[in-house]
Amino acid sequence: MKIIIINGPNLNLLGKREPEVYGNETFESYFEKLQVQFPTVTLEYFQSNIEGEIISKIQEIGFDYDGIVLNAGAYTHTSIGIGDAIKSITTPVVEVHISNTFSRESFRHQSYISPNARGIVIGFGLKSYELALKSF
Question: Quick check: is 75 catalytic?
């Protein structure tokens, strides 16, 4: 099985950014743990702060992989383009959020990803990625 985790803007700052919301661990450190936890899965990781790069990556792998775990960050709430990219591919996507977006600002309650996602995991910290991977 081949699955990619795609992270959007500011998630490269995990471990530094708002630790009270996102924790103290870097995503790179957590990703190494996921690779150990899922040894039979080929896991890849891609992060970009640029909307077009995320769309291009989704299009590039969206017909060949077994799954995409997507945390589009703030683009979740603003990017019709990412939502359309997901709608255009055959690879299933699970939307992930580290924090409970519904307990935060009201603009975070809207997702352009959710209508086209296979499922959503919200609010379990970094463990949200593990739960998404288990869904595949």
Answer: no
User: Is 97 known to be catalytic?
Assistant: yes
Query: Is the separation of the CB atoms in 116 and 93 below 8 Å?
Result: yes
- Summarize pLDDT for 118-130 with one digit per residue, the tens: 999 999 999 999 9
pLDDT tens for 2-56 read 999 999 999 999 888 777 777 788 999 999 999 999 999 999 999 999 999 999 9
Does residue 79 contact residue 44 with C-beta atoms inside 8 Å? Answer: no
Q: Hey, which residues does 47 pair with through a beta bridge? A: 7
d(CA 117, CA 87): 8
CA dist., res. 55 & res. 86, Å (int): 8
Distance CA 106, CA 50 (A): 23
pTM: 0.92
Q: Which member of 30, 65, 75, 97 is catalytic? A: 97
